Known about the structure:
By secondary structure, this protein is an alpha+beta fold. It has helices spanning 35-53, 62-74, 83-96, 100-120, and strands at 3-6, 14-19, 25-29. The protein has two domains: 3-74, no CATH class; 83-120, no CATH class. Strands 1-2-3 form a three-stranded antiparallel beta sheet, covered by helices on one side. The mean pLDDT is 85.
Amino acid sequence: MSWIRLRTEKSPYYVGRFVDENGKLIDRSTKSKDPVQAQRITDAWEVEARCIREKLFPKSQHRRVSKMMYHIATGEPLKCPTVKEHLATFVHEAAMQNEPETATSRRQTAKLFLEYLNQTT
């Protein structure tokens, strides 16, 4: 059985507690300030973990099922950035922190990585 609690000392979001696919008790932020929505998200995580534990679907389908469960629980699709979007954020964060050398290094690393991906596909 899953449950939620409010994490007032560090965050305004509810934390969900559930048993994961390995049988461990897990605390995870729901990123929701609404207790009903937070409970639905936590319940979805628990159902997903139980399905993996009981081998109701292969672990390789975990991401697809996770996105579907999140959509059902919140009514909103899970935002999954592309590799390009993720790398752009990675570079932008360094630039916003006034770390020009870090931003330059990250920009070059991202460029090389994307070039590598283009060569292998």
